[in-house]
Amino acid sequence: MSEPHSLEPVVLLNEVFPGDTNSMDTLYGGRLMSIMDTAAGMVSSKFAHKEFVTVSVDALKFRRPAYQGDIIRTTSKVVWTSPRTAGVHVISCRLSRSEWEGEEICSGFFFMVAVDSNKRPVAIPQFTPTTDEEKELWNLASKAREAMR
Description:
Elements: E1 10-15, H1 29-48, E2 51-57, E3 61-62, E4 71-81, E5 85-95, E6 103-115, H2 132-147
Antiparallel strand pairs: 1-4, 2-6, 3-6, 4-5, 5-6
């Protein structure tokens, strides 16, 4: 299999609009999961130049709310692979318009399977961790994946 096309993360920015919030003016968890899933799919495609579908999501850790008017910065990076699956670490932060400093609101691992035009799994390039941080994320993703089996 060829080398990954890109190891760079994908960063998405989204504004929290009134339709994205509950009666407390905080972002719906499902809306945040959708944003995170989109980022995971994009970075997987950038990594392998393939189409991907979500196969599983590790237990997401919702740390604090985001509010109407906040900007959500979602960063995704492929940190683990198996022959057809990319494990993606996704972190979402809220940014207030007055400070623009990130405060983590949610993180987790998304596992994405590459598929062909018939929606059958296909092989992807493999990621090899080299730095201590990459090795740590690889191990965390591997444990998360094993826990889901």
